[in-house]
Structure formats: C-alpha cells, structure tokens
Amino acid sequence: MDHHPYTPIGPHYETRHPGSLKRFLLATPILLLVASSWRWSSLMHDDLSVPASLTVTSELSKVTFHGPIPYSTNTPYALAGSFQPKSTHSHVDANGDKDNWNICRLVQINGLYRHGTRYPMEKDYIKMNDLLQQLQTSYNATLPHWLQTYSFPYPQNASELLSPSGANEMRGLGHRARQLADRFNLSKHYDPTAFVFEHTHVLRTKQSAHAFVEAFFPDLPTVDYKCQPEGHDIPLRFFSNCPKYLKYVRESTNVSIQSKAFEASARATHLVQTLQRALRLPPAPWFTFQHLKSIYEACAYDVALFHDTTTHAAWCSLLDRDSLFLLDFHSDLKKFYECGPGFDISVAIAAPLLVDMLGTMKRGQGFQGYFRFAHAETILPLLCLVGLCPNKTLLVASWTDDDIQSRDYKVAHLSPFAANLAFHVYHCDKDNTTQMRIQVLVNEVQVALPACEPKAFCTLEDLETHFADALTYDFEKACQL
C-alpha cells in the first residue's frame, strides 16, 4: 500500500507516518470528558428518566459486566443520562470559584443533533429477516416457542426511517430547548433570520428536524428548512465527501481490522456457541458470528424502538448480559477507527462543521437558534475534534473483560440515538462591558472543554485560539487522492 500521511489539525492529533494505514493512529493526549455540576435538562428531569423496562436483563445474565446495558450507536436516548454523573444546578470552575451567572442572559442555542431512533438499515433488516426465515424453515420444532411463529413488528419498507420513539426523542429535545429559551425570553415565533433548522438529504434527519420544531414552536409555523444537495453538504456529511477518507478508511479493510480480529477470536466462538444453545440448535457450521450480529441487531432495535425488554424484545432473551456488553464493544471497535481517534483523518475532516458552528456564534449574526440534524458519523468526529472523545489507549480486540468494562471510549455514551452537542451562548454584562460566555453540553449535560480549562465555560476567543489549525484546515486538499 502506498503511504498517504494525513494532515493533522492541531497538537491533539499527531500524524504517525510513514507507514501503512493499517497502523493505528492515536491522538496523543488524554482527552477526558469531564461532566460539570449542572444539567440544564433538569428543567424536565422526568423526560429523561430511564424506563424500568430498559434495565431488565435476560435470566441468562452473568455478573462480569455491570451497569445499564449499552447498544453502541443503537442505544436509545433514554439511557444517555444513565451513563453520566449526577449533577446539580450550579456553575463551578475547576478552581472551585463560582461564576456569577446572574449577570448573564442566553442569546443563542447552537446545536448539532443526531437523528432519533430509526428503523434498521434495509441491508440489516434483510439479514435479520433472512435468518428468521432460515431458522423457522429448518429448525421450527426445536426453537423457543415464541420464535416459532414470530414475525418482525415493523415492515421492510420502514427501513432507515425515523420511528415513533425517535420522533418522541426529538420532540423531547425540542420541548426542553423551548423551556430554556423561554427562561431567557428568546422569541416564541419563527423568524428565518433568527432561527435556522438544517438537515442532510437523508429523510430521517428531515423527519427529526420536523419533530424537534413541532415542540420548539408549538404554533407549528411554516419553517424554511436548510438542506444542501447530496455531494455538496460538506459540513454535515463530511464523511461522505472526502475521497481519501472513503478510500483508505470508511470503504477499506483498515477500518475493521480489530473488529474482524474479535470475530476470529475464541471469545467470539464462545459467544456463537452460547447463542446456538439458547436457540436450541444442533451444532451447525453454517451458524456464524454474522448471524449472532443479526440477532444482536434485532435485540438492540427492539429495545430502542419499544423501550421494552419483556413484550417486544424477545430477541434479547437469547443473549446473556456478558454477550450484550461484548457485542457493544465489538461495534465500538469499528466506530473507534471509522469515526473516532483511531485514524487522524476520521476526526480531522469534521473541521468544516466546527468552522460553521463557531462562525454562526459570532456577534452580529443575529441567530437565536441554529439547529443541525445529522448522523452518528457527524457527531462522533466532532466530539473528538473538540476534545470530548476519551481515548486513553487504542481499542483492540484482545482486551480483557476488565479492559472492556473500564474503557473510556464508549459510543453509547457519546452517540446514542438523538445524541447532541450544543453551544449555549450567553452575554454577561459587567463593568459596562459585555462578555460572551459559551457553555458546552453533550446530551444535555454541561461539560468542560479541555481547551477552556480551568474555566467552566469558554469564550469565543478561547475556541478560535485553541482550534486555530482546525479553522484553517484545507478540507479539499486533505481529501484529495
């Protein structure tokens, strides 16, 4: 393979070259997500409470792994708060000094939102349904009773679309954003010069934007949605508009070296054999890890779509607790390299989006709200770019159970369905001057950016200085083959 060194965007992303792209490129410093002591969604705390049914686990459960069960990118937003520390409403910086927020007024919400819970991708639905048909045709008499007559409770033509539970997630986000806006007297009425709602060409992001707007503007105005045509939507779909990234990462075997190593391991063989026993199948060489993945997908979607592990999520009864945690890790192994710090370019190409977000925060722009609706592949690199993507070490297939349990990089924490990264812009009047303070929130929990420490907030100057290399990143040049 030819050497194709990647252009770093700053000191956080050291380019390791020359060498094959199969060499894993790790961001050098430890960037830890530090949750602060305020959660603005406490305004509607009940909205984010975890349904009791989501904490139910299979009777086959072991005790190696603990905590709420994660499902990588298919984790429902209701579980997002379960992975965050509890907090109270106060503003304390790293030195313990309270900032005077009584002099501040919110002037803008500037956010990026992943779409809400969707139905399976069509290719995944086909795999799931083909496996179901094969099981029912060849082994019906010995299968668990519920599986003998089972059919999926959603049709193939719903594939990839926003689900009712996903629409509810987005309406909840819109409702809580409206409550915050009302506290600071931001406009209740839609004005295209003050509020921008942008989505990608993919229908589920448009559906998510509509659901959010339904709650943010209850009078349901006619909204002008912004959408760049496919192939020209670099800020929100940089990952599909960078030829070098597509060739050497996303569409290459480089991205799945560790996940494939996991699939070839003795651990994976044990997982497959355990599932075969749960299905009451005889030893069958045709039943592989790919079939295990399909059943895991079916389980994850049942939880995300129905928030119920007892009525609909019968697939989860086939997988013990350890298996679910290990399969979540298997999914994260790929995302770490595809959308995370495993390769420099996977993160660097989010620079145009950061440029867009910081640019729309500047004084004189007049925006009270700028809301973008996109994908996991959008939000994960952006979180890493701004220093909120923990990566103490590379994720590798050979990790022990303890390594997996204690790892920092967990996609379910960062990008569940409806995941969000928001900048709340405040103007604070003091001594006849106005200071801009920016709070950063991940999944509605305020966090401290490493770029702004020890303060619990940022200034625009902090961000522009720290991310100067990203702001001058030449996307077109970096993406050329």
Automatic annotation (TrEMBL):
Entries under PROSITE patterns matching the protein: HIS_ACID_PHOSPHAT_1
Gene3D superfamilies (UniProt xref): Phosphoglycerate mutase-like
Keyword Chloroplast on entry: no
Residues annotated as transmembrane: none
Swiss-Prot/TrEMBL catalytic activity: 1D-myo-inositol 1,2,4,5,6-pentakisphosphate + H2O = 1D-myo-inositol 1,2,5,6-tetrakisphosphate + phosphate; 1D-myo-inositol 1,2,5,6-tetrakisphosphate + H2O = 1D-myo-inositol 1,2,6-trisphosphate + phosphate; 1D-myo-inositol hexakisphosphate + H2O = 1D-myo-inositol 1,2,4,5,6-pentakisphosphate + phosphate; (2R)-2,3-bisphosphoglycerate + H2O = (2R)-2-phosphoglycerate + phosphate
GO CC field: plasma membrane
Disulfide bonds: 104-428, 299-316, 452-458
GO molecular function, a single term: inositol phosphate phosphatase activity
EC number(s) stated in the UniProt entry for this protein: 3.1.3.62, 3.1.3.80
UniProt-listed InterPro entries: Acid_Pase_AS, His_Pase_clade-2, His_PPase_superfam, Histidine_acid_Pase_euk
SUPFAM superfamilies documented for this protein: Phosphoglycerate mutase-like
Keywords: Cell membrane, Disulfide bond, Glycoprotein, Hydrolase, Membrane, Signal
A UniProt-annotated Pfam family: His_Phos_2
Record localization: Cell membrane
Homology family: Belongs to the histidine acid phosphatase family. MINPP1 subfamily.
Protein name in the entry: Multiple inositol polyphosphate phosphatase 1
